[in-house]
Write a structure and sequence with these properties.
The protein is mainly alpha-helical. The protein is about 50% helix and about 10% strand. The chain has a two-stranded antiparallel sheet with strand order 1-2.
Length: about 140
């Protein structure tokens, strides 16, 4: 997770202009295949987001994988980053990961406080899934 996080932080640091960073996140969202319409339901929807955001968790061979979608490309890009950072790890590894490390991304200078709140809600959902799976 730290390596994936570091890669995104380095990518974002390549851009000096905040709007270029914003565009990078939008591009991530545009490249995402998203979710099937059937997965865009209330069970998978993240509460606390300004936009509609859905996260679906799958477990394979003891590791968790996340797929995401949103009705806005910037939020879809943020969700894609989170899904990528946390996918492929055990529930215990995710549950024990220090969420403060995500501050390395510097998102507070790129996105609004409302979007940051939604980002936190997405993180909370991922941790919730991991803790539920970790505790059986």
């Amino acid at each position: 997770m730290r390596e994936k996080l570091q890669n995104y932080a380095e990518e974002l640091s390549l851009f000096e202009d905040v709007m270029d960073k914003y565009e990078y996140i939008i591009d991530l969202g545009k490249r995402s295949s998203g979710l099937e319409e059937s997965a865009k339901n209330e069970q998978n929807k993240i509460q606390g987001c300004q936009s509609s955001v859905w996260i679906v968790m799958e477990e394979k061979e003891g590791k968790l994988f996340f797929k995401t979608d949103s009705d806005t490309v910037i939020v879809r890009g943020l969700a894609v980053m989170l899904a990528d950072i946390f996918s492929g790890f055990t529930p215990a590894a995710i549950a024990n990961f220090d969420a403060d490390a995500l501050k390395k991304l510097g998102l507070e200078e790129i996105i609004s406080p409302v979007r940051l709140n939604g980002f936190s809600s997405m993180i909370h959902r991922i941790y919730k899934y991991a803790k539920e799976k970790n505790n059986g």
